[in-house]
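Reopening this ticket.

The earlier resolution said the output was attached, but the attachment link was broken on my side. Pasting everything inline this time so it's all in one place.
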Amino acid sequence: MPATIDLHCHSTISDGLFSPPELVAHAVQRGIKVLALTDHDDMGGLEAAREAALQHGIRFVNGVEISVTWKKRTLHIVGLKVDPNYVPLKNALDLVRTGRDERAREMGDDLARVGIQGAYEGAKKIAANSIITRTHFARFLVDNKHAKDTKSVFKKYLVKGKPGFVEHQWMDLETAVTLIKDSGGIAVIAHPGRYDLGMINMHLLMHEFRSYGGVAIEVVTGSHTPPQYQQFAKIAHRFSLKSSLGSDFHGHGVSYMDMGYISELPENCVPVWDDWEEAAYL
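Inline output:
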């Protein structure tokens, strides 16, 4: 059965294609009953999304997805039920967004060195008033015929060892988890299957994350395969972590999966929402 809860998606506030109200309307069409908006390093869309959810009669959960550097790797930590008015979290995300723009300029310079001119300006135009992410660069590269689609972009560009990749120091793991926790939120490791850590580092990450107050990992997400659902369900159980799920939907043509298609959690999982009022009727 498809899940009717989605705790990971993106709007135009970061790198999604739908505005927060449009995203909520799409979630309703796809049968979602509980939704969290988790834009990259930005909580600017939460109020509009909450208002839209109230109008459509679905439950809404505040969220954010924070970029983290851990052992020279970029990870993403989702914060659920965060307080968007918590000043230390707001200030920290402001710094991350400033760093994002600096990185974007360097990415544009690196692409120019291999003959792709105007990438920063093109990505910035696509991003409009939102932060610039790799997805915006990917869309620029597709629009300018450097790749056939956004998925193929990441085989030739923007990843380690390829043009457009820029090493960047994001927020550290302990700080991200602590800020989420101190804002009243719940820290979740996003799509762990995408990090290619190896078993030793994966277990080290889980242990460290939990020691800082991390609560859950995404077991079912758009980029995981069914065998990975079982793999990460076992890891969650081993480290006494709860399980989350979300489509990681950005928009048609740029996402692994649309809302309303992801599976429910495996039976042995403890849902991250097991004691939430928002999900009491699911």
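Reporter confirms the inline version is readable. The beta strands are 5-6, 34-37, 59-70, 73-80, 171-172, 186-189, 216-221, 242-246. The chain has a mean pLDDT of 95.
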